[in-house]
Amino acid sequence: MNFLIIGDIYSKSGRDVLEKRLPNIIEDENIDFIIANGENISHGKGINKSHYDFLKNLGVDVITSGNHIFKVKETLEFIKETKDLLRPINMYSELPGNGSIVINKNGLNIRVTNIMGNSFMEHSNKAYEIIDNLIQKDSSDIHIIDFHAEASAEKIAFAWNYDGKITALVGTHTHVPTADERILPKGTAFITDIGMTGPINSIIGANPDEVVFKDRTGLPTKFKPSENPGRINAVVINVENKKAISIKRLSTM
């Protein structure tokens, strides 16, 4: 099976390039299963119901997220009915939504888990404890984790800890792609950060003018999503006999 995992989709530029290019990617890469991080898809922060439907209509199987998942208030309601829109599993348990899901496709039980880092992020429960308990009870054939975290070292350490216990761990959140995609020694596919699917000429998605102004002056500034043309950043992971065989970066306009 070929898995396409799409990095943080940012606002209209991200949606536009995805709508334009995704059908060709699916055909060219012979994609069987799509995971996309949608936490920035609605005006740069959060995901509304319309944009959830947009991704599902494009063929996305599971939508992951991160610290911005509930920035749009309506998400607190519709996430209760959309089991394939994940919020980080280690957020407060009182919050609605799933942190992990198992989907049967091509005769295989595929688990996708979304978790958030503990370093330099909003408060969340301990990532290791949550995943330890989940893996102990899990009987899925394939397990892919979207680790939404700020610190590169935290993502790398987490991947090494679960090397051989999960199929793949991909990092999201920083919006900057890393060039360290690889199969770890015990067989887990890994990349520190997939990068952003959104406007190229931007500062991690935002219009540069406002970001530079805040950086130079320190004054409170509302960032606006850049409307410049977008680029898709993603990875394609090939899984054979329930094991990751390869991982490659994909970057296209």
List keywords for this structure.
12 strands, six-stranded mixed beta sheet, 253 residues, Purple Acid Phosphatase, chain A, domain 2, 6 helices, globular, single chain, alpha/beta
Please describe the topology of this protein:
Layout: E1 2-6, H1 11-28, E2 33-37, H2 49-57, E3 62-64, H3 75-78, E4 100-105, E5 108-116, H4 127-137, E6 142-148, H5 152-161, E7 168-172, E8 182-183, E9 189-191, E10 198-199, H6 208-217, E11 230-240, E12 243-252
Parallel strand pairs: 1-2, 2-3, 5-6, 6-7, 7-9
Antiparallel strand pairs: 1-11, 4-5, 8-9, 10-11, 11-12
What does this structure look like?
With 253 residues, the protein is α/β, with parallel strands linked by helices. The chain has one domain: Metallo-dependent phosphatases (Purple Acid Phosphatase, chain A, domain 2). It has helices at residues 11-28, 49-57, 75-78, 127-137, 152-161, 208-217; strands at 2-6, 33-37, 62-64, 100-105, 108-116, 142-148, 168-172, 182-183, 189-191, 198-199, 230-240, 243-252. Strands 1, 2, 3, 10, 11 and 12 form a 6-stranded mixed beta sheet that branches. A 6-stranded mixed beta sheet has the order 4-5-6-7-9-8, with helices on one face. The longest helix has 18 residues, at 11-28. It is globular and about 50 Å long.
